[in-house]
Amino acid sequence: MNKKLKKMFCSTILLSSIFYLSPLAQINAYSESGLRNQWKHDSYYAPYAGHNVETWNYYGNDGKPKEGWFTVGGRWYYGDEAHDNDFHGIYINEWVVSNGNYNYYCGSDGAMKTGWFQARPGNNYDAGFKWYYAGADGKILRNTYTPDGYWVDSNGIYK
Length: 159
Hints:
This protein is 18% helix and 33% strand. It is an alpha+beta fold.
């Protein structure tokens, strides 16, 4: 290969690498995904977990996965805010921490829970399930009586 062609080839590879690793390229990749206002399911092998991991993302009108709280069909969901790749999705069977507390819970369908539900305390997968009550706004009640007259403690757990 002559010297000029080799130099041009190396320059092209270098510029392509910089572009594809930049945040601009990630934004472009999301917008070019063709996904608008729809759900996408992914499954991948996670070496850190030792098994396959499944994720769901909701892509908004801008073609990007939703982050933070958002609604679809009148239900609230919480999208992971670490979308450095597509393997971060909505919270499923997980607590959402706000102000240092486990204040909201997203169930097996990913939607925010209201009313009575069972969950493990603080995303502790070794703990047993406990009963919690979330108000209409989804926030866990603490140190009070639920609307149907049951006491929940400072952690929101029915005793």
